[in-house]
Amino acid sequence: QVQLVESGGGLVQAGGSLRLSCAASGRTFSTYTMGWFRQAPGKERDFVAAIGGSGSNTYYAISVKGRFTISRDNAKNTVYLQMNSLRPEDTAVYYCAAGRVAIPTTRSYNYWGQGTQVTVSS
């Protein structure tokens, strides 16, 4: 069992930056692919970014590529999402996920956090 706790959300103006963190419990963190997803009101939960267990492989949604960076610190059991050049359309609840997934861009993760709200004002 893995428990995930996100933090770092908040209100920011368009063009600003935020860094989300996701702390995981357990001693097998480095064996999991970690993903970030987001869900805006009335919409489906969409893939944002993912990172393999070693940190060597990263994946991004087209809408965030070049603006967001995913990273992980296996010694701290933590994954990060650095979000730059934020836009109002980035407003959503952001969820952290962990799993041993074949396709990191799908929602087939085993464990999910409770989410953190990101609001970008225009």
Keywords:
single chain, mainly beta, four-stranded antiparallel beta sheet, 0% helix
Write a structural description:
The chain is mainly β. The chain has no helices and 11 strands. The strands form 2 sheets. Strands 2, 4, 5, 6, 9, 10 and 11 form a 7-stranded mixed sheet that branches. The chain has a 4-stranded antiparallel sheet with strand order 1-3-8-7, with no helix packed on it. The protein is globular and about 40 Å long. The model has no long low-confidence stretch (mean pLDDT 96).
Structural class by sheet pairing and helices: mainly beta
Number of helices: 0
Largest sheet properties: 7 strands, mixed
Shape: globular
Share of residues in strands: over 45%
Q: Which residues form runs of ≥5 with pLDDT under 50?
A: none
Query: What is the C-alpha radius of gyration, as a whole number of Å?
Result: 13 Å
Distance between the termini: 40 Å
Give me the count of strands.
11
Written as H for each helix and E for each strand, in order along the chain, the element string is EEEEEEEEEEE
Q: How much helicity do the residues have?
A: under 10%
On the 0 to 100 scale, the average pLDDT is 96
